[in-house]
Amino acid sequence: xxxxxxxxxxxxxxxxxxxxxxxxxxxxxxxxxxxxxxxxxxxxxxxxxxxxxxxxxxxxxxxxxxxxxxxxxxxxxxxxxxxxxxxxxxxxxxxxxxxxxxxxxxxxxxxxxxxxxxxxxxxxxxxxxxxxxxxxxxxxxxxxxxxxxxxxxxxxxxxxxxxxxxxxxxxxxxxxxxxxxxxxxxxxxxxxxxxxxxxxxxxxxxxxxxxxxxxxxxxxxxxxxxxxxxxxxxxxxxxxxxxxxxxxxxxxxxxxxxxxxxxxxxxxxxxxxxxxxxxxxxxxxxxxxxxxxxxxxxxxxxxxxxxxxxxxxxxxxxxxxxxxxxxxxxxxxxxxxxxxxxxxxxxxxxxxxxxxxxxxxxxxxxxxxxxxxxxxxxxxxxxxxxxxxxxxxxxxxxx
Length: 399
Description:
There is one protein chain. The protein has helices at residues 7-17, 45-58, 71-79, 87-101, 177-197, 212-226, 256-270, 274-277, 283-309, 312-316, 333-345, 351-357, 378-398, and strands spanning 25-26, 62-66, 103-110, 117-123, 128-133, 136-144, 147-152, 157-160, 202-206, 241-246, 320-324. The termini are far apart. It has three domains: 7-174, no CATH class; 202-246; 328-399, no CATH class. By secondary structure, the chain is of the alpha+beta class. It is built from 13 helices and eleven strands. Strands 1-5-6-7 form a four-stranded antiparallel beta sheet, covered by helices on one side.
């Protein structure tokens, strides 16, 4: 698989790298706006948990390439979209980049003749640049240090969120900066409180006047005698000291209500709940999370991959890529049993579909769907009643 074109296209890429037309834009969505700690939005514990939860659930989406003649691409997209990643890693990385940067790019992988797409590769926005050469927009990216290549921007897939001012890219995460500042300040306060609590501080008043050197010597003697290695817990002082008092340092920390508000701000920003993060959700909570967060991402993934893989004519003939999830697997055992019974009786699902809900393997002949025999077509019933009415009327006329 390759991303490059012919020698002519390679020459164009060399032109791009020389920086023609003086147009250059670095996509720095991941450059952390919050700079009082090392790292960006992915480096905080709570925000990473929210991002990981979203990416982990999205990675369970099942891609399917519909249309005739797409068997090979369907298999590749379902198992190994590129030589470096399986499908779970591929979707997980795209979801993570989208949440961290509000942007993610996908490069198509072509065959050696550059005629057919054979796979997809996710590109990190931090390693991408946009340049215009001869009036055409190109995406220059770096797959490994020192190895740059480029491709027409229109051929790349683009996933983003929080799109407002820019026509191409999502906004930054500056809206969360104040919350991250509070989280960082709280962590620092807790660490400082732990360090201070382990140190015993005293104010000792000497009962006599001493020279500076003598005061320092007495301070060292007092510390060694009473604070260093004193396992008895009893402090002993002599007549040199008029008074000794222990100092109590009160460290400021955010109370539970304020900390809960900070956590709620993070949950609101990422559209997740504490039960979802801690895997304690009910089927109702899961359905709400799926419809609010995962389904929009799955829809965008479907549209982006369809646009990359097929022309407008091919799409008109039913070719498309869809990313779906089996939401029935998240029901409780009793809900699964009730759902399987109701849907199987009405021919909506097959036996193998029902077995999949319980994580059971398929069986031979299990793809046939059945309905209960007392169910009949409503139109057939109406026609039979109409015929009976007509026959009764004709019989009465004869009599």
